[in-house]
Amino acid sequence: MNAVLAAIALLILASAGIALTLRNIVRSVILLVVTWFGIAAFYLWAGAEFVAFAQVLVYGGAVSMVVLFAVLLVRHGKAGVAETPAPSGRIVSALLAGGAIAGALAGAVALTPLAPAAGPAPFAPVRHIGVLLLNTHAASLLAAGAILTVALLGGVVLAAGGGPEKEDGP
Amino acid sequence: MSTLQACLLLSSLLFSIGLAVAIARSSAILVLMGIELMLNAASMNFIAFWRFGPNPEAATGVLFALFAIAVAAAEAAVGLALVIALYRHQRTIRLQEATRLKG
């Protein structure tokens, strides 16, 4: 197994696993940003540079900022960023469910006879991806744009729309 | 174990961590982050199969991952807007207390 892949896997799994256990929401989110950068490193390792850049721009840039803004907007008093823990039964059931899914998936991956690995990394230059996006997949690209537009409009309506604002003062 | 299996194992473990985050945490924001982790694990599978697949020239896995990232960004925007709307109405984002749909 590749040493670079092992390092990337360690970064991804360690940051996600620690984020699972932290009680402070801001620290959890920052560790999840580290996880997203690790996933971008995985894309770079696999030779998909364009996806890696998209991952850094969308997750490392946009989504992380939006999430941190949301955390700070919904902070309630001084203890707002410390999450009250869930009931222990739910934590146990979550770990059981996650472990069961992980075991089932790992068993399926280990037992499936997959084809031997290809040779050198395939090359997907940005020009090639752009030509494919604008020729073969132009309809999908337009649909994705429409989804993004509608979703952002809906987000603005939801977050800024009217409704009974309860004023209970700080 | 081949490298492809190692990649699939990594994405499986990441998916499981995301599932555990989504079930165990009580803050709505962290539940959304767990869902994002699961989506990212699925994109990693696309890239892994593209990298080690028989026909990488078609770049299908890359395009699938790109569209998945775009849709995940839309999902994150709508989800966080819902969290903010929930907070404006009920002054909490704990999922145990958010039991009403009425504003």
What features would you describe in this structure?
The complex is a heterodimer of chains A (170) and B (103). With 170 residues, chain A is an all-alpha fold. Among the domains of chain A are: 1-75, NADH-ubiquinone/plastoquinone oxidoreductase chain 6, subunit NuoJ (Four Helix Bundle (Hemerythrin (Met), subunit A), Up-down Bundle), CATH 1.20.120; 123-157. Chain A is 72% helix and 0% strand. Chain A has six helices and no strands. Chain A has helices at residues 3-21, 25-46, 49-73, 88-111, 126-134, 138-160. The longest helix of chain A is centred in the middle third of the chain and has 25 residues, at 49-73. The radius of gyration of chain A is 21 Å and the shape is globular. The N and C termini of chain A lie far apart (55 Å). Chain B has 103 residues and is an all-alpha fold. Chain B has one domain: Orthogonal Bundle (Helix Hairpins), CATH 1.10.287.3510. Chain B has helices spanning 3-24, 28-52, 60-90. In chain B, helix 1 runs antiparallel to helix 2 and helix 2 (28-52) packs antiparallel against helix 3. Chain B is elongated, with a radius of gyration of 17 Å. The N and C termini of chain B lie far apart (53 Å). The mean pLDDT of chain B is 88. At the A-B interface, helix 1, helix 2, helix 3, helix 4 and helix 5 of A face helix 1, helix 2 and helix 3 of B.
Counted beta strands of chain B: 0
Strand content of chain B: under 5%
What's the pLDDT, averaged over the residues of chain B?
88
Order of helices and strands of chain A: HHHHHH
Q: What oligomeric state do these chains adopt?
A: heterodimer
Strand content of chain A: under 5%
CATH class of chain B: Mainly Alpha
CATH superfamily of the domain at 1-75 in chain A: NADH-ubiquinone/plastoquinone oxidoreductase chain 6, subunit NuoJ
Radius of gyration of chain A: 21 Å
What would you say the CATH architecture of chain B is?
A: Orthogonal Bundle
> What summary fits the major beta sheet of chain B?
none
Shape of chain A: globular
- Poorly predicted runs of 5 or more residues of chain B: none
The average pLDDT score of chain A comes to 85
Number of helices of chain A: 6
CATH-derived architecture of the domain at 1-75 in chain A: Up-down Bundle
Helix content, binned percent of chain B:
over 70%
Helix content of chain A: over 70%
How many β-strands of chain A, per DSSP? Answer: 0
Order of helices and strands of chain B: HHH
